[in-house]
């Protein structure tokens, strides 16, 4: 198939299977006759592993190489369920909080716009890779939402509001830091700031929703 | 077109005998892209080869891309972080940059990154600080106060209309009201009236001063709020006119145009302030809102 004299060619070829070596393992065994539980748990473990990598952003290959949208879907649905307001408490002065669909669409459209921005700036990363990373990096914000929700069960005063503000700002900083770590290198040197700013804005808006959520 | 084709052809023929091994390697990669399709696309990130391809594309800016591809729009996003910062500075403090900055830089290479993200930032800044202002207004009362999320959509409508419609109108006005002077008419038009994209760019950057001002509007002191309105509208309106003055001079309605640019700018600023931040001294804000909604 290849010219016999080209040793360099063979070396180039040898490189590429080693790239896919990690995934090769899971492809080999037959998944047709395994119990559903195992299949399910394996996928769940992969998603959990990615959450772990977002919370402790040390290596970036796992999120970028094998992207999936399960984690973002879970996080997004979870956040939208908790954040949604109800029309019962809406009166003349307010609208009772965002609808489920509004939060849901905000997360997905926001992630798509931020990704489109990095594509337009000339970043070399595929669309769904970036959406996957942005979705998984919602994890710290979702955790801060859970903590804020627990705080909301007690009687509110200004100290507790301040505490919620601090918690969600930590979530915001954490999410931005993780996303920057994963996506920062895909941009050319001079444009890194331009790519990071929309990410900051996206997470800031979501953190703002978390702070302002006070439907008890 | 014919020139480019021969150039490429020559280049390729020059290239392949020298680097025989390399061209063969590209073939191998093509084979592998087919075989390990998903592995390849996912490992794009750490892989060396696509990077050089991107750089080669950037080195040839004259290529005509289809209107519906991302590459077509990439030319409007081809800015560095320092350039964007410089343009923001130039929209507030024009004395910091050279006198013909607009003609040289912005007209030659208008970008849409700044206008789009400055508008989006302004929308959310106004929504967030509008809510904070509302909170401060109700802080002393016993009302159980909640956020109003839908301020975002009102702010978005207002700002996007302003950023797109006003430059469009201005562009049309400049295009059709140019007075032909002694020189060749076509040449004057081409050199004087700015393109539509560069007007969008200029207007988008001129909104940047409203972002800090929107945060300052949360201070609930009436005269201070009006002071900020006047200051912001005057500064960014004056800078707009400063950059557009050479083009405006060519128009026969230049005074009307200058007046309407300033007027619209002032209208936008006071509209923001009155709708999102201001509370009338005597009337309860909740009753005002109910009245307007009932009327609508």
TrEMBL record, chain A:
- Lineage of origin: Eukaryota, Metazoa, Ecdysozoa, Arthropoda, Hexapoda
Q: Which GO terms describe its biological process?
A: endoplasmic reticulum to Golgi vesicle-mediated transport
**Protein's recorded name:** Protein YIPF
Chief location bin: Golgi
Tell me one Pfam family matched here.
Yip1
From which domain of life does this come? Answer: Eukaryota
According to its UniProt entry, this protein's organism is: Danaus chrysippus (African queen)
- Similarity-based family: Belongs to the YIP1 family.
Where in or outside the cell it occurs: the entry states: Golgi apparatus membrane; Membrane
Automatic annotation (TrEMBL), chain B:
Which of UniProt's keywords are assigned here? Membrane, Transmembrane, Transmembrane helix
Q: Give all residue intervals belonging to the Yip1 domain.
A: 101-269
Q: What is this protein called?
A: Protein YIPF
Gene Ontology MF annotations: small GTPase binding
Coiled coil ranges:
none
Topology versus the membrane: Multi-pass membrane protein
GO biological process terms, alphabetically, are: vesicle-mediated transport
Q: Which organism is it from?
A: Danaus chrysippus (African queen)
> Listed GO cellular component terms?
Golgi membrane
């Amino acid at each position: 198939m290849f010219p016999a004299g080209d040793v360099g060619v063979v070396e180039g070829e040898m490189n590429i299977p080693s790239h896919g070596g990690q995934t090769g393992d899971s492809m080999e065994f037959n998944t047709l006759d395994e119990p559903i539980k195992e299949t399910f748990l394996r996928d769940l473990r992969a998603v959990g592993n990615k959450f772990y990598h977002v919370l402790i952003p040390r290596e970036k290959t796992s999120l970028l190489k094998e992207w999936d949208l399960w984690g973002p879907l879970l996080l997004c649905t979870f956040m939208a369920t908790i954040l949604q307001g109800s029309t019962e408490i809406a009166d003349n002065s307010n609208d009772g909080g965002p609808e489920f669909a509004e939060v849901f669409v905000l997360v997905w459209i926001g992630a798509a716009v931020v990704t489109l921005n990095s594509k337009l700036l000339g970043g070399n990363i595929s669309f769904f890779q970036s959406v996957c990373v942005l979705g998984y990096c919602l994890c710290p914000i979702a955790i801060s939402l859970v903590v804020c929700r627990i705080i909301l069960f007690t009687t509110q005063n200004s100290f507790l509001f301040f505490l919620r503000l601090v918690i969600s700002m930590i979530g915001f900083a954490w999410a931005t830091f993780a996303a920057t770590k994963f996506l920062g290198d895909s941009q050319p040197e001079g444009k890194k700031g331009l790519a990071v700013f929309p990410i900051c804005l996206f997470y800031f808006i979501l953190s703002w929703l978390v702070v302002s959520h006070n439907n008890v | 077109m014919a020139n480019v084709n021969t150039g490429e052809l020559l280049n390729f023929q020059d290239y392949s005998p020298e680097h025989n091994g390399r061209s063969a390697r590209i073939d191998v990669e093509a084979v592998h892209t087919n075989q390990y399709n998903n592995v390849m696309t996912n490992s794009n990130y750490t892989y060396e080869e696509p990077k050089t391809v991107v750089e080669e594309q950037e080195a040839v800016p004259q290529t005509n891309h289809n209107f519906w591809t991302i590459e077509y729009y990439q030319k409007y996003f081809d800015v560095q972080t320092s350039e964007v910062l410089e343009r923001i500075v130039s929209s507030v403090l024009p004395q910091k940059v050279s006198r013909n900055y607009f003609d040289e830089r912005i007209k030659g290479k208008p970008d849409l990154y700044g206008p789009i993200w400055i508008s989006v930032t302004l929308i959310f800044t106004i929504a967030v600080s509008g809510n904070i202002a509302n909170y401060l207004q109700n802080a002393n009362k016993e009302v159980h106060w909640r956020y109003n999320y839908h301020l975002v959509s009102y702010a978005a409508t207002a700002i996007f209309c302003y950023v797109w419609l006003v430059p469009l109108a201005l562009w049309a006005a400049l295009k059709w009201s140019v007075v032909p002077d002694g020189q060749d008419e076509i040449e004057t038009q081409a050199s004087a009236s700015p393109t539509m994209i560069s007007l969008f760019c200029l207007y988008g950057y001129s909104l940047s001063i409203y972002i800090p001002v929107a945060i300052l509007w949360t201070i609930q002191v009436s005269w201070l709020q009006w002071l900020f309105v006047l200051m912001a509208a005057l500064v960014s309106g004056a800078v707009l006119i400063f950059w557009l003055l050479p083009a405006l001079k060519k128009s026969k309605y230049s005074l009307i145009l200058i007046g309407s640019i300033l007027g619209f700018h002032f209208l936008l600023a006071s509209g923001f302030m009155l709708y999102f931040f201001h509370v009338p001294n005597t009337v309860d804000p909740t009753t005002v809102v109910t009245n307007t909604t009932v009327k609508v």
